[in-house]
Design brief:
The protein is an alpha/beta fold and about 450 residues long. Helices cover about 45% and strands about 15% of the residues. The protein folds into two domains: about 150 residues, no CATH class; about 220 residues, Glycerol-3-phosphate (1)-acyltransferase, CATH 3.40.1130.
Length: about 450
Amino acid sequence: MTARAADAGGEMPAGVGSVQALQDANPWPDGGHRAVLFLLDAEDDQERVLLEERIRARSLDAGARVETVVLGDDDGALRRLLAELPGDAWLQPLRLIWLPKPRPGASSLVQDLIALGIENPGPRRRRRILAEEPERVRVLRGDGARIDAVRADALRSWGEAVEGDALAAFVRRQALVVLDRVERNARGARYKVPRLLPEDVFANREFRTRLWQVAQEADRDPAEVESEAATYLQEMAATQTPLTLDALVAIMRAMYTASHDREIDVVETQLAEVQELIRTRPVAFVMSHKSMLDSIALQCVLFDRNQPMPLTFGGINLNTPGIGALAKRAGVIFLRRSFQDNEVYKSVFRRYIDYLIEKRFSLLWALEGTRSRTGKLLPPRYGLFNYVVEAILRTGIGNVTFVPVNITYDQVPEVGDYVVEQQGREKKPRGPAGSCASSANVGRTGASSCVSVRRSYSAT
């Protein structure tokens, strides 16, 4: 059940997980096992009962010991079962998903947001789906592994043997990782999200050593420094979910269609090359920045073509209740404007970038570091670029590819802001509400926008 799946004798190729219709689903692992522990990623009792019914509807061996535990509940039950079961007991992750109805054609923001409630049903709507459209319910069976194989993988990750609470936490994280992979196969690659971030980030030995060094240099308690690091990580980290991705795309689409055509022009051959890069390696999109719509345009183009949306960077001033909070949950990494003198913050940010590179997540930022106020390119700022290059060197992942992106418009929504600032009047601080307003100020003009990419450059 590790990130590299295992067969009864050890590891096996990834991608063995399956997506099955609920009524015909067989949640049991292949082959005979004298003990099986089903790891259920159930949102509530309704989903737990449905999964347990499918387990009981099929049989493995009459003498096999069968146990179930819900992931996300108290790890005490999982810890106890991992200690009780034999080393060759099989760990089998399971999850339910509720597929949406197809929605052909264009739709308004209101229609998109209403559809989100339908596509992410509560208990009452689930009962209706089970009665009227059971084919929309799927059972995800993630790649499983023996307990012994998971212990060995934990040893490789941590550099020491783990048992008890640490082993239970490791098993839970790995089960959710493999289930997320299977869910992306069912829902689409656009829903690749960096889940489980805090535990994965702090599992790195070099990072923990660096925090200890910072504590020693500042004559501080290491536990206090680690707590501060956890706070910084929570502040900056993107915490995506499929629901918030859908919600943000609906809002972003409303923002750019307020002043531009819904269809964004692209060169399909260029986009095909980008799609192949995303499939095989981490990609860093480096764009010019003329408008608040720049990242929106690229993200909507990728989302519509079932590609993972890159994680973007934003100033901490944008992280406000409402739209800012939604943006954080849809892939925006919020950073403080200045942190050069904060060694804990810098260490956390470096480790977070390492983590994203290791997990093959795409990144997006403006090389100029800020939005142009004249419509012309500004001199590049290399701060984020340097952090990414350093992460490549630390992780040894040399196939990270930089993709230059240019977004052009028939009419830039912020042209009024350009005039005001060129007249010498004070630039107003911009929050999420201001960004939304500026995109709608132009009015509906039928203007078009175009996303183009240029020759990519690999780090190797």
